[in-house]
Specification:
alpha/beta, about 15% strand, about 90 residues, about 50% helix
């Protein structure tokens, strides 16, 4: 990936290539620039496709700016990594 424009690469992934976008949300996620880029492209795609594309996993009590309050989060505070992975697998497999 050396030399690759990561902003353009991630935009392509979130806007066109990924089937879902799992967001692991914490106070650190909300503050950093790269997750904001991810969120902007994922929200754009979710709006266009009108389907459950964003799968938010909340690791603490942080709120995501711009994500509608009606979106249901997976509350992961009491779950193991394996349980989180299984719940996401169930969601994407139907």
């Amino acid at each position: 990936m050396r030399g690759k424009d990561l902003a353009a690469h991630l935009a392509e992934i979130y806007k066109n290539n990924a089937n879902y976008c799992a967001m692991f949300i914490s106070m650190h996620y909300v503050r950093k620039a790269w997750p904001q880029l991810e969120r902007q492209h994922a929200q754009s795609r979710a709006l266009i496709e009108k389907r459950e594309y964003i799968l938010p996993v909340r690791l603490d009590h942080s709120e995501v700016p711009g994500l509608p309050s009606t979106v249901v989060y997976l509350e992961a505070g009491h779950l193991s990594a394996g349980q989180i992975a299984e719940k996401l697998r169930q969601k994407v497999r139907g």
